[in-house]
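REQUEST ID: PR-0412
SUBMITTED BY: lab tech R.K.
PRIORITY: routine
TASK: structure prediction, single protein chain
INPUT:
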Amino acid sequence: VQLVESGGRLAQAGDSLRLSCVASGLTFSSSAIAWFRQAPGKKQEFVAAISGAGGSTFYRESVEGRFTISRDNSRNTAYLQMNNLKPDDTAVYYCAADPKETGPAPVASEYDYWGQGTQVTVSS
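STATUS: complete
OUTPUT:
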């Protein structure tokens, strides 16, 4: 199983970015996908999750209304659209997959597979 994130870069506060996560080696359409992030010196935190069919989503409170998680099962790809970025959004963003489809859960231990991460840096 491989998850590959992309789309992270240096952005200004208020900008928008879209992260992508391309998956291979698993039945993507039946896997819940989540995004987590980790800022320097801080614990990893849940950002958003989506069910396999895409009908159920879940967000951490601080990104609700600014971030949107989505997926294209025909492309084995999940996305995280991030609008109105803030310096506090600076982190390495990871996508994760739960092929058991027990989610979408905001708990890292529910996810069996992880990508390498993509860096998002937001300057003020």
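NOTES: The CA atoms of residues 11 and 25 lie 32 Å apart.
REVIEWED BY: pending
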